[in-house]
Structures
1.
Amino acid sequence: MNTQTRKAWRIRQPSVIPGFGLALGVTLFWLVLVILIPLSGLLIRSSALGAANFWALATDPRTLNALRVSFGTAFAAALVNVIFGIVLAWVLVRYSFPGKRIIDAMVDLPFALPTAVAGIALTTLYAPNGWIGQWLTPLGIKVAFTPVGITIALIFIGLPFVVRTVQPIMEEIDREVEEAAATLGATRFQTISRVLLPGLTPAVLTGFALAFARGVGEYGSVIFIAGNLPYVSEIAPLLIVIRLEEFNYPAATAIAAVMLLISFMMLLVINLIQSWSRRRYGYGA
Amino acid sequence: MAHDASQPQQRLARVGKATTEKPAARWALIAISLLFLLLMLFLPLTAVFVEAFRKGLFAFIKALGDPETFSAIRLTLIVAGIAVPLNLVFGIAAAWAIAKFEFKGKAFLTTLIDLPFSVSPVISGLVFVLLFGSHSVLGPFLQSYGIKILFAVPGLVLATVFVTFPFVARELIPLMQEQGTADEEAALSLGASGWQTFWYVTLPNIKWGLLYGVLLCNARAMGEFGAVSVVSGHIRGQTNTMPLQVEILYNEYNFVAAFAVATLLALLALVTLVLKTLLEMRYSAEIAASRRH
């Protein structure tokens, strides 16, 4: 009885494996030192600004525009990535064609390629006299140095997030479900749109949220292609850097705090989607 | 209906037909995918190499022989050489605590470890500027002792550690959770000490997963731009890592040199991808990432 109650109050359940104290100690020390102290420093500095001051800095027109550009382009890019990501994951899971393994490996290129390299490469392609840009300019389409260019860079950066969250769930789909749908007279299109896609919804939402969150904070691949025109193609992370270079620490802190707050909310949403899908479908995304 | 059951081959074929798309639709989807990847992935990668050799091999080699570029390469290796081992030790410790034990607040701890992934790289740099800059609480104190953190190697290492923090831990935690504690318990019951158990039982079990995590961690550490850019101060030949050197050369319209340095980073990315794919193919059972990205 007594041991039972004491057990419930224990922080950890008993185990013969040694090293819990050391491992947890190292983990917490490193976590607090490198992540938590610096991050809380930012929160303390922004709360020290005072509510009125903070609000004024956060709602400065240039700041609002930069946030709008960041979130708008990230949203558009994540949407494009959802469409092509689903198609790509489907092709990689279901079909076989020559070079498939290489294609599958290449999907992770944006994870591995440094963002600055991606940035200058995309700018070379889409600049008005670039490889692709020179064909678009006569048509009156301007990609580089506009929000469209930012979106292209964010599509590049976000693609693997959607593919890699949807792909494993697609692999798990039970073929019998499709066979049952076909037996009951569903056309192939109906099977896909009414039976398969709904089951993929949590994975797709998670992939979308991950790509979106990454796009909002992205800096390296965007600044080269964006042109960085204030109020037009200036992203929020860049505005933080500009404010820092002006030694305007309060403004930089305020923008960062707003972005951080929204990112944490996104993180929460992702976690909610995952626990919801685990309840509803029995697997996480 | 007897003829239906007597020809299982035909029936299977019909089931197969009912659960896949028409060949035309199939090839259309493959074509769309390939075209999209060609445009979004292959073309940018090709552009890096073509632009680097635009003025010939000689210009390429000359660009790489530049002393500032050389010092950027050296600095990138130093920073990654410090940051990756630090996060390696952290990753193993975190995975050991989280995967081998049940304790309160475990889920919360896991969320905290993932935190840097949801922070913009620029903010990851900014937090250290706010902590150590001349306007901060610590700034004047450090200055009086002559300790330089910002605009110097320690700042670059800190920002890189922040950004690459979760990589090793995220790979090891699901892997070690899957492996359980039975092997370790057996070793301990046979008289092995804690360290012996770790070196001779756990480490061999997780070595490929560990390598996988280190590989991704290293790629990010060497390629990080935003966080490092904020804390570097861009002192030429001193605090410029390779990605920062790419930016400086590019902004000076020295495109051949910028792309020459970029080819080195692109090669790093390609080597990372090849090794990663090989690990996934050969040791898919011994790494967690093939099931969970």
2.
Amino acid sequence: MLDFPRWRVWMLNTLIILGVLFAIPSVLPTHIRAQLAQFVPTPTINLGLDLAGGSHILLEADTSQLAETRLEALEDSVRTAMRRADPRIAISDVSRANGQLSFTVDSPAQVDAAREALLPLTSNATGSRDWNIGVNDGNRMILTPAGTGDETALDQAMDTAKDVIDRRINALGTLEPTIIRQGENRIVVQVPGLDDPEALKALIGKTAKLEFKLVDEQADPDQTAQGKARVGSQVLPYPDNPSGLPYIAVRRLGGISGDKLVKADPTFDSQTNEPAVTIQFDSEGGQKFARMTQQNVNKLFAIVLDGQVISAPQIREPIFGGVSQISGSFTTESANALSISLRSGALPVDLKIVEERSVGPDLGADSIRRGVLAAVIGTTAILVLMFLVYGRFGMYANVALVINVAMILGVMAFANATLTLPGIAGFVLTIGAAVDANVLINERIREELKRGRRVVQAIEFGYKEASRAIFDANSTNVIAAVLLFIFGSGPIRGFAVVLMIGIVTSVFTAVTITRMWVSRWVKRTRPHELTI
Amino acid sequence: MKLLKVVPDDTNIDFLKWRTWAFGISLLLMVASVGLVAAKGLNFGVDFIGGQMIRATFTQSASAPVTELRETVGKLGYGDPTIQRFGAENQVSIRMKLPEGADKNPELANAMATKITDTLKAGHPDVRIDGVDSVSGKVSEELFSKGILALLAAMAGVSIYIWFRFEWQFGVGAIWSLVHDVTLTFGLFALTGWEFDLNIIAALLTIIGYSLNDTVVVYDRIRENLMKFRKMEMASLLNLSVNETLSRTVMTSVSISLPLIVLVLFGPDVIFGFSAAMAFGIVVGTYSSIYQAAPILIWLKVGSHSFVPTEEAGSKAERISEGFES
């Protein structure tokens, strides 16, 4: 047991050195680390927001709204397909309810033709089917979502949403956000060092879906005020309506959406000198916009942002070139925020904030300073006690303990893990386990000596007998850590990660490494007596 | 060099003499804890009940104007705030329920936070906002259920392990002492009214980990002695095992308590409840290994026959730990 082949000594020493090397960057002051980073890679531990200060925002997608959007898009393409069919298929009574789209084919003879025209719409690029087609009462067609269409759509939407958020936050400048998807329909945004997330929230919470719709100029203002619209029209909120009525009726069809933009910049309106946003469509969007303005000169069109009308100017002349200006009651900030949102694209789903935490930098810094102070005092006390009680063997345990701390930090840095407050609890537990392992071993050696065993034998027995309890104790902790990682939420997982890393390094340093040192000492000095 | 002895050699304290008393008192304390939690409830943080918490420090004042804050914030029309000092005298946490409809429209929660912080800043130029937490009802329910689930899973998992490695009685003893420790810690939080949030779940997990570690060490020695002294009466055998491991128990508990006591006294205020819970747990966990986990074995009729039939558990333990050691 006290035999250590040379290759093993080398391997163990290499592991120690690697662990300690990886730990170094994390404990260096920032400016030195920055200089060092120019020459060698410096993986460091991230401090959690609870320690370093910053903002954490959890966004959740509205899945029902996503299904609704899909249904809306389907309705559009169905109407177009029916119109373009040759001969044209007349449909009526289109309704979207309970997640399905239904409509009546006016002439029952055309049902088969309608089904034919629907087929390309109902399957996706991979050939699998997104919608099932059913027919009721001979000529009423019903489209219901099939299979995993909704899930796939959500998955894609969340990926896109993540990218959009990433682009929007990057537009804010120097922040270093972490944006990750969580579960099926959530996105976590963490921004270290940002303790006032107002600007951030204004930016990521907006869907930024821009649409241009024709105003229904025949609408009866009284009806509109009650939220009622004629067939083919809808009533939208319009808070800044010059007429004083906070609603306006717009035509459902014949508008275009503003998702095909190549540019969006804050600017000032040349006439009123108020903040505004200029947008530029890509060539396809520009052509559509030109066509729409050409066909509707002198009519009013509404600029709709996230379902709310921001202004409804008159089309004085056709607009070619795809450049347009949006004015409404903007401030410089809101014009800037809107241009960033438009530039980065609309969110494919509405996201709402379900959890938000921000920690001021002072509190975090105070926590770290006092936490480190307490850790240093506490650890020093342990080291002194261990030395006083176990002498030379206490010293071995102490050096092993320091290496253990370094190795935990090193592994965490290497894995780019995050240290949080619960993580510190995990740290305390593993350091406790490491100390306990050495206490167990040393107490056992004492016992065996008392029973009259010779030194070398006592040491061998001490390690052997204590190993069983150490093994069981650490196995239970591993089991706990794994279960916590599986079942726990964010902070508890932070605890579990540190615990798992710490158990491995603790056993490694407190048992294997100290045994290597002890065996070298025993071989060199051949002790006949042992004070422990 | 003369080394320090924390515990004198060859102690022979009759720990198990008081086992019935200790068990009775523990049972009483556990019932009291459950009663306290039921009657007073736990002071749940926004992590678990949802709502908004604003933390603020009045940098130029000796103490925070809690009464005045209660009044001014209460007047804003969002309902009555829960205002508590935390840590230093001049630091407070203000907790509010989220406004009606905030689940649908997060802007409402936002507006409330802005209004409260603006009111604070207007009345007290020296105020520093240290953080704002908003947790929706849905998320807090999830955090709560996941936290409890993690706790239960960890307790069940480790007990099953102990059952496999020792005997079923040991598994029961282990889970009983874990339930004991966790219940008393819940009782402590109900009694003191300290805020109970996600960090406290982490503290509870640490307590479980430590208490179990302690139990395993005592159990390991009991197993060893059961195989060594087949004729010894159970109570004496437990006493012998506890005494043999006593200096290790004291040494480890003292070592681990040291950094925790320092954390309670000088550590960051934010984690006071967290460190205090862990320090409390170390004491309770050490006690429960001796007075709950061990005597339960007598009542569950563990005896010299326990590891005899196949010696499976013992020899398996030997094999595994040997492999692990080399």
